[in-house]
Design goal:
The complex is a heterodimer of chains A (757) and B (169). By secondary structure, chain A is of the alpha/beta class. Helix content of chain A is 42%, strand content 9%. The radius of gyration of chain A is 30 Å and the shape is elongated.
């Protein structure tokens, strides 16, 4: 069986690295083959380079012996495969939206980009704004993931391992960053919708991390230099859950299981660690739980269907998967210590014939595999190095054992802080601490004369350390921590006693032990997670939080219908509606143009169609695909002319009818708001409401708009909430014809004369 | 049991020559007086007297007793050696586990001394061997000590675990 573990973004890579480490220690069940894949724009991310380096060394250790094809339990028994040379994939070769969306050559693309992205996102030709990741710009991130080159390479690399039908996929990523939030769902959907994989029905799990680190607030705020704004972590997590919740409500989840993982108290990092090019965070316990979640999916994927799997906070004495994790870390610590201080130095004393009196295993092991004592020593050295790397990542080594020969004060302080943060993220008495570890005490029950007794060439393929690992496993007498059992809680940011945004208690499943547990009702669970007070710190949703190019439409809808919309937004919306629907002097037709998808480059087209939250894109948004652009210009535009990017002011979208363009200038915005106020006083909202209310919901239904009843009623309520006419002047007449044929039913319905009676 | 612990029965045969040699010299049917060679060597002054038969029987009994005691010391020392080595291995300190042969040779000397001391003490405290000359005492003590040491070494070789530890293969 194959486990394809895809780490998206920095946190995803950290989880992938951890899973790779733990799998090397034998945490996965027997017979599984791990295929780690990391997807990130920043190919030089420290977690990615570290994982690649580890895999290289792991494979080299196996290749140096006869273990290239070894597949078995225990140390280094796991087979790790490559998808490409380095197991790292890039969503796109472009580094700016401007280049990615082909804005240099296309007036249409420029206009469309102006609608959906703000100027800072679009960037300039040859810009490198997204060279190292998407830094919280999830809406931009999904466009990069829709670059056909990157998308095809990701799909092709993963697909070949799945066609045989014996694989499953686990996707790691954070819901609070940029790359992970943009790529998790995208890759899941990519795999689910791939025609070649449809017959295989690949089991897919998404392991989504909630914010588990944040800047230390004890010092100065220092937020000015943050490249990935941490104050919006929670808000973005809420948006990610909302998006998942919407998919679940629509029965459109692209995976069998979702593992939300968080912590009530995120680790505090120094603010400077959030700066650009400083993103080399220490490992944290939650990443190890991510690896356990992958293991849980491997063990249980056949029974899971649209499940949300939740676990409790660790409780002493640790049991189930946590006990397994703790044991495996202690085994690694003891083995590493023995290799370091005993076996490797001992081999210096072997004579030329490979004989060391008192230690007959040396001669036997060497003779069995046809290796010399020097080769055996080299092998032990390589194994020790890998074990040490695993343990360093887990925080087992104290910082003073990791310092370079002549460390600077800065290096010493940074290392000390990294180790401390990692250690503090683990539950009490969970980690082996190398400075206190007494290997002889822990393995006192083992018979040292039986060392390497069970080593066989066939079973271990010259990876002699496997036999040592088994001996340590048999000899290790690990006491369960005897501390006070703490009251349970959930491995989530918000707890059952916390209230949601509606001040209701959060609904969370019962978790009687340290295993993962499925919620009874997936939809309700995701709703509950989405309703946590994620927005408490940042009450305004941002379009950059949603993994969709259509994010401005979703955010505009949410704000407009929330009941908390400010007047300026309400009048802006009303102004746009009026521009679209009321005849203006000198303008014979609705100022609208259809930007056909064919006029955009492939990435832009795919971004629009693949990330649209409405499944029936063509029937619901516009009939023939594309964008219906509202423009406002004083210069007459030819019938088939494309408005300049400065003149586009909004686009049509069924939930709110129109959506203001992201790139709207403040001056133009103010003008439209004033116009909205002008028409509101003259009774435009009421008139429009009367004009469409009879058929509106039905029109949305006919256009296959999701939640048509709810969205339709919300729009009508929005119109009805304006005061009745306060000025005696009358309004210009409504347009009665939409100039573009073949558009969606709801758009035609807006312009049809209402039938009397 | 791993192959390095597999052990040939041939090593056990090494335990037999020393007792066999003593069985030969102590055997009552042999010698000019049919009381064995051993009494003849140490009881020359009693040869032909009435007390010679009693002396020979007493010397045989004492010698066999001392040989058995020396063998017990030798075997105990072998097991003690294995116990101590295992304990040293459990410390997982390289400096403690480098000289197995040295440990064996040291124990060999200790068994020699212990067996010799045992024989000397027995002869000094016992009343029955007063007729044996001083030179005879020295020879008997040396023989018993050597027997113990040889048996210890043979036991180390005969038991598979210590054999492979000693040879390192």
């Amino acid at each position: 069986m194959k486990l394809i573990c895809v780490g998206v973004g920095g946190s995803g890579a950290a989880c992938t690295e951890t899973l790779t480490h733990l799998s090397a220690l034998g945490l996965l069940p027997d017979g599984w083959n791990l295929i780690p894949v990391m997807v990130d724009q920043d190919q030089q991310h420290p977690r990615i380079t570290a994982t690649t380096r580890f895999i290289d060394r792991y494979l080299a250790v196996r290749a140096a012996r006869r273990a290239t094809t070894l597949s078995g339990q225990g140390l280094f028994g796991l087979s790790i495969s490559r998808v490409v040379g380095s197991n790292v994939l890039q969503p796109s070769t472009h580094e700016s939206l401007f280049d990615l969306l082909g804005l240099a050559d296309s007036r249409q693309a420029k206009a469309a980009a102006r609608l959906l992205f703000d100027g800072s996102e679009i960037g300039v030709p040859g810009g490198r704004d997204f060279a190292n990741g998407y830094y919280g710009r999830v809406n931009a991130g999904v466009c990069f993931f829709n670059d056909p080159k990157g998308r095809d390479s990701i799909l092709a690399a993963i697909r070949e391992h799945l066609l045989s039908g014996d694989g499953c996929v686990v996707l790691f990523g954070s819901g609070f960053g940029g790359t992970g939030a943009a790529g998790l769902l995208h890759i899941a959907r990519l795999l689910r919708d791939d025609p070649q994989l449809k017959p295989v029905k690949v089991p897919i799990a998404i392991i989504q991390l909630e914010p588990y680190f944040e800047p230390d607030s004890s010092g100065n705020d220092g937020t000015g230099g943050f490249v990935n704004l941490p104050e919006s972590f929670e808000s973005r997590t809420g948006a990610a859950y909302e998006f998942l919740d919407n998919l679940a409500q629509a029965g459109n989840l692209p995976c069998q299981a979702i593992y939300p993982l968080g912590t009530p108290v995120p680790a505090a990092f120094p603010p400077e660690w959030f700066a650009r090019d400083q993103q080399d965070n220490p490992h944290l316990f939650l990443e190890y739980l991510g690896a356990l979640a992958a293991r849980d999916f491997v063990l249980n994927h056949k029974e899971l269907t649209d499940d949300v799997r939740i676990r409790r906070l660790p409780v002493q004495p640790y049991e189930g998967p946590l006990a397994d994790l703790r044991t495996v870390l202690f085994r690694a610590a003891v083995s590493c210590r023995l290799l370091d201080s005993y076996f490797i130095p001992l081999l210096d004393h072997v004579d030329d014939d490979g004989v060391l009196p008192g230690h007959p295993w040396v001669h036997r092991v060497c003779a069995t595999g046809g290796m010399t004592a020097a080769q055996l020593k080299e092998h032990f050295g390589e194994v020790r190095a890998l074990l040490k790397e695993i343990l360093i990542n887990s925080g087992a080594y104290p910082h003073d054992q990791l310092l370079s020969a002549s460390p600077s004060d800065e290096e010493r302080e940074r290392l000390e802080r990294r180790v401390r943060i990692t250690r503090e993220s683990f539950p009490p008495d969970f980690l082996p601490l190398m400075e206190r570890l007494s290997a002889p005490t822990l393995i006192g029950a083992g018979d040292p004369l039986a060392l390497f007794d069970d080593y066989t060439l066939q079973g271990d393929a010259e990876v002699v350390a496997r036999s040592l690992w088994r001996w340590v496993a048999g000899a290790l007498a690990l006491e369960a921590p005897g501390g006070q059992a703490r009251a349970g809680g959930y491995q989530l940011r918000w707890q059952a006693h916390d209230r949601d945004v509606d001040n209701q208690p959060l609904q969370l499943p019962t978790t009687p032990n340290d295993e993962f547990h499925s919620a009874k009702d997936t939809k309700r669970q995701l709703t509950s997670l989405a309703l946590g007070k994620w927005s408490e710190r940042n009450s305004r949703r941002s379009h950059s939080e949603y993994p969709s190019a259509w994010a401005p439409a979703i955010v505009h809808r949410d704000i407009l219908y929330s009941g908390k919309a400010r007047d300026d937004r309400r009048y802006l919306h009303l102004g746009l509606l009026a521009i679209a629907m009321l005849q203006r002097p000198g303008s014979a037709a609705v100022p609208v143009r259809l930007l056909r998808q064919g006029q955009l480059n492939e990435t832009f087209r795919e971004s629009l169609s693949k990330t649209c939250p409405i499944p029936a894109y063509d029937k619901s948004v516009v009939a023939e695909g594309g964008l219906l652009v509202l423009f406002d210009t004083t210069v007459p535009l030819e019938d088939d002319g494309v408005p300049s990017e400065e003149d586009v002011i909004g686009f049509f979208y069924p939930d709110t009818v129109v959506v203001p363009a992201m790139g709207l200038s403040s001056q133009r915005r103010t003008e439209i708001e004033r116009f909205g106020l002008y028409v509101a006083r003259r009774g435009f909202p009421r008139q429009l409401c009367v004009r469409i209310e009879r058929d509106w919901v039905q029109a949305l239904r006919a256009s296959q708009v999701p939640n048509a009843d709810r969205q339709g009623e919300r729009f009508l309520r929005f119109l009805a909430n304006f005061e009745a006419r306060t000025v005696a002047e009358t309004l210009p007449p409504f347009y009665t014809e939409f100039p573009i044929p073949g558009v969606a039913r709801w758009i035609r319905g807006l312009f049809e004369e209402p039938q009397r009676g | 049991m791993a192959s390095w612990k597999r052990h040939s029965m041939a090593w056990w045969l090494l335990l037999l020559p020393p007792p066999g040699l003593f069985a030969y010299v102590l055997s009552p049917g042999l010698g000019n007086y049919s009381e064995g060679f051993w009494p003849e060597w140490f009881g020359a002054s009693l040869l032909g007297t009435d007390g010679y038969r009693l002396f020979a029987a007493t010397l045989r009994l004492w010698t066999i007793g001392l040989l058995v005691a020396a063998a017990v010391v030798a075997f105990a020392a072998r097991f003690w050696l294995a116990y101590r080595w295992r304990k040293r291995l459990r410390s997982f300190q390289v400096s403690q586990v480098l000289r197995f042969k040295g440990l064996v040779y040291r124990d060999l000397g200790l068994v020699f001394i212990a067996s010799g001391t045992l024989a000397t003490t027995a002869i000094l405290l016992g009343q029955d061997l007063r007729d044996v000359p001083v030179v005879g005492w020295v020879v008997i003590v040396s023989a018993i000590a050597a027997f113990g040491a040889v048996e210890f070494f043979m036991a180390v070789l005969a038991f598979g675990s210590t054999n492979t530890l000693l040879r390192g293969r």
